Amino acid sequence: MNNISNLRIKIFADGANLDSMIQMAKKPFIKGLTTNPTLMRQSGVTNYREFAKSVLTMISDKPISFEVFSDNLYEMKKQALEIASWAENVYVKIPISNSDGTSTTGIIYDLSNKGVKVNVTACLTTDQVVEISKVLNPSISSCVSLFAGRIADTGINPIPIMQQSLELLSPLKSCELIWASPRELLNVIQANEIGCHIITATSNILDKLPLIGKDLNTYSLETVRMFKDDAAASGFNL
Fold first, then answer.
1. Could you give the CA distance from residue 124 to residue 150 in angstroms, rounded to a whole number?
2. What is the pLDDT of residue 2?
3. What mean pLDDT is predicted for residues 36-43?
4. Cα–Cα distance measured from residue 144 to residue 161, given in angstroms and rounded to the nearest whole number
5. Overall pTM > 0.90
6. Which residues sit opposite 200 in a β-bridge?
7. What is the pLDDT of residues 166-218, one digit of tens each?
8. How far apart are CA 173 and CA 3, in angstroms?
9. E strand or H helix at 108, and its extent?
10. Which of the residues 59, 99, 191, 192 could staple to 179 if both were Cys, CB 3.0 to 4.6 A apart?
11. Quick one: 4 exposed, middle or buried, by C-beta within 10 A (0-12, 13-18, 19+)?
């Protein structure tokens, strides 16, 4: 792998800063965008509807996932239908359960069969993927966000889980698996190698994409020069 253009996987920018989202959407290698309530809070968003509609006014040609935020299943479905109505390029993020652990597969089934493009999020196990695969309408576009980074945070290698999930979802031709919560640039390469459809990435990883294929000897020399320059700038002496 020597440059971004050789990647088969689709890269989605993950964030909630309007200006940054607009700039990311202009880049040809960014194929879509995602956000969530946590990222919105970190960016100081206080009016959900106003923020989302501002994004959709500026970005209409790439898929964007917005997440429901109610913990009540009835309200969750109601929010999902409203969010889906905002634009054709909207995917609605539905968590795999509410905060009590109550499954949302019933809601996912209803929404998918109403033609809503859902992005089932906060998934970490293949058992969850099995349940999701049973309720998605195979003719309606959908995504399953499997949080590989959080799996890795527990000391478990996420790659076998991602590979099994790809197999489980393979009969659903309109469903794409998302490698969510990556922790480093290497995850982009790993996700690409196993045939994952999409990977989401925040700015700290997106900023490193130009490093793909960089000559390691050159990188070593640049590192040495960085240490030298920083020592000089600090005025160190012995």
1. 8
2. 63
3. 97
4. 13
5. yes
6. 12
7. 999 999 999 999 999 999 999 999 999 999 999 999 999 999 999 999 999 99
8. 28
9. helix 105-113
10. 191
11. middle
